[in-house]
Amino acid sequence: MVHRDEILKPIWHAFAALDLDRTGKVSKSQLKVLSQNLYTVLRIPHKTSELEEHFKDDDEGPVSTQGYMPYLNMFILDKIQGNFDIMELNRMCWTLCSRKKSNFNMLITDTDAFKIWCIFNFLSEDHYPLIIVIEEIEYFMRKLVDAVGSDWNEGRFVDYKAKLSAKNHCLIVWQLIELVGNGYFTKGMERQTLSMGINEVYQELILNILKQVKNNQIHTLSDYHLNTFKYTPPP
């Protein structure tokens, strides 16, 4: 079964997308819709009346992530039976958050961006806000460059690493999508070739691993991650 942390990551993106004013809070009406969608994609039976009651309008105002977590844990995550498709959850949350970031003018398609988003969630640690550290960026970019049949430019990466280290040593998901979409490590690459490379890495790191989880060859995505990568916490 997919680990709870891997379920929380796309939900976190969805919550963040609803927080338009960046206050850390979301209106109850929006959370009611989000919860309803989560019940649907996670295939959890529920009573609409209880959902309406919990998120009824009152004078308490919007809800923070901390305020939503008890409901999310008790009424949604604790009731998951494992008979859902994690990719349905990913697509639902992606649809919600990507429309807030749909103005990218890049070499990649929306489908490519979704696949990078999934890879980011897989490689990121389960602390929030979600970030990907330089070691994981290098791991992903090396796989992508290899997938498109190109040579790894160590000097270019060293320069990029120095620039990133001068800032915060990590990227959020939209920065990673932009890094790939702008072709920083794949200069001169045709759009179709880049798309095929993204799909190959996505197939390996996401779809193939999900098959292993489903077949109980590994217990969770996190188990694969911990056994594959050495994580260095950001400073």
Automatic annotation (TrEMBL):
Name all SWAP70 N-terminal EF-hand domain ranges: 3-94
SUPFAM superfamilies, A to Z? EF-hand
* One GO term describing the cellular component: cytoplasm
A Pfam family per the record = EF-hand_SWAP70_N
Top-level division of the source organism's lineage: Eukaryota
The record's section on PANTHER family has: SWAP-70 RECOMBINASE (PTHR14383), SWITCH-ASSOCIATED PROTEIN 70 (PTHR14383:SF6)
Q: This protein is called what?
A: Switching B cell complex subunit SWAP70a
Q: Which organism was this protein described from?
A: Astyanax mexicanus (Blind cave fish)
